[in-house]
Amino acid sequence: MPKAIRDISQLVELAKRDDATEIRVKKITSGPRKGIVKLKVRTSKYLHTLTLDRKNAFRASKLISSLRSHVKCVNV
After folding, report:
1. Which of 18, 51, 59, 68 has its CA 20 to 30 A from that of 38?
2. What is the pTM of this model?
3. How far is CA 11 from CA 29, 36, 65, in A?
């Protein structure tokens, strides 16, 4: 079951949990939603999604680099 996350700190907390298995990063490169980055955290029960708009998309790379030691990161 998917769930939407609105805050970056919630994503960090979820990624550091024991049941979090991976983070998927999806960068939208064309169309009207160009520049949006989606970060998806897979836990045992839910797939949590954080959508970063163009203004906050630069935070995604910093966030991924800080979470690589906790969870496997996959670029889609």
Report:
1. 18
2. 0.85
3. 23, 17, 14
Helix (H) or strand (E) holding 64: helix 59-67
| 74, 10, 29, 66 alpha-carbon torsion, rounded to 10° | -50
- The DSSP symbol for 44 reads S
- Coil, helix or strand at residue 48: strand
- Percentage, residues of the chain above pLDDT 90: 45
The DSSP bridge pattern shows strands 2-5 and 47-52 to be parallel
The CA-atom distances, in angstroms, between 52 and each of 14, 18, 44, 45, 46 are 17, 24, 23, 23, 19
